[in-house]
Amino acid sequence: MKPVLLAAFAALLPGVTLAAPIREEGAARRGLAVYHQVCSVCHSLSHVEIGDLAGLGLSDRQLRDLAADIQVAGPPGPDGTPTTRAANLSDRLLSHFPDEASARAANNGALPPDLSEIARTRQGGAHRIFTLLTGYTDPPKGVSVPDGQFYNAATHTHLIAMPPPLADGAVTYDDGTNPTLAQEAHDAAAFLAWSADPHRSARHWLGGVTIAFLAVLAGLVFALKRRVWSRV
């Protein structure tokens, strides 16, 4: 029986790949640079822990260097005044503003939305984000834009409170990619699509491993059944 079981096991293995999850190291990883250098000034990613960014291929050293560059709220000082501390890998990417009023005061009265799931909850997803980030233009002749508003062809009203966040050269990429406005917008959209479901790759890998295990188990059971019934 043993040779039969081994043969069944071996027959199933060629079609089974048990490699570790493939880490995204392209657009989404560059998008992290866009978020960290530009977007994080106003926007939070409250559902994402710094340690989750390992899913983009960052090494432990890179994660710790990034965490050291981020300040989060610390325990109150001896006199009760707020303090800050360097982040650790379990900290989430929260807003830098202490409260909603401060956030609105710094953004023409608008509250910067949390970006954790914006690519999943807003119609159009990542493509919508890209068109918004690249939609800033001068208003057409005869169109007036109120103070504190900006013309953006991608919005329903063509007005938005957020100033144009990106421009050519606004970001420094570690991989040498030319930081044009379109490139930065594309990468930011890719990163926000990833941040909306940062554990998706791991789940897909685990699902593949589970299917592979069940396929091998089914083959072994089938081989055992044939072996047993061949004696009857």
UniProtKB/TrEMBL annotation:
<dbReference type="GO" id="GO:0020037">
    <property type="term" value="F:heme binding"/>
</dbReference>
<feature type="binding site" description="covalent">
    <location>
        <position position="43"/>
    </location>
    <ligand>
        <name>heme c</name>
    </ligand>
</feature>
<dbReference type="GO" id="GO:0046872">
    <property type="term" value="F:metal ion binding"/>
</dbReference>
<keyword id="KW-1133">Transmembrane helix</keyword>
<feature type="binding site" description="covalent">
    <location>
        <position position="42"/>
    </location>
    <ligand>
        <name>heme c</name>
    </ligand>
</feature>
<keyword id="KW-0349">Heme</keyword>
<keyword id="KW-0732">Signal</keyword>
<dbReference type="GO" id="GO:0016020">
    <property type="term" value="C:membrane"/>
</dbReference>
<feature type="binding site" description="covalent">
    <location>
        <position position="39"/>
    </location>
    <ligand>
        <name>heme c</name>
    </ligand>
</feature>
<dbReference type="InterPro" id="IPR002326">
    <property type="entry name" value="Cyt_c1"/>
</dbReference>
<protein>
    <recommendedName>
        <fullName>Cytochrome c1</fullName>
    </recommendedName>
</protein>
<feature type="signal peptide">
    <location>
        <begin position="1"/>
        <end position="19"/>
    </location>
</feature>
<keyword id="KW-0408">Iron</keyword>
<dbReference type="Pfam" id="PF02167">
    <property type="entry name" value="Cytochrom_C1"/>
</dbReference>
<dbReference type="GO" id="GO:0009055">
    <property type="term" value="F:electron transfer activity"/>
</dbReference>
<keyword id="KW-0812">Transmembrane</keyword>
<feature type="transmembrane region" description="Helical">
    <location>
        <begin position="205"/>
        <end position="224"/>
    </location>
</feature>
<keyword id="KW-0479">Metal-binding</keyword>
<keyword id="KW-0472">Membrane</keyword>
<dbReference type="InterPro" id="IPR036909">
    <property type="entry name" value="Cyt_c-like_dom_sf"/>
</dbReference>
<feature type="binding site" description="covalent">
    <location>
        <position position="162"/>
    </location>
    <ligand>
        <name>heme c</name>
    </ligand>
</feature>
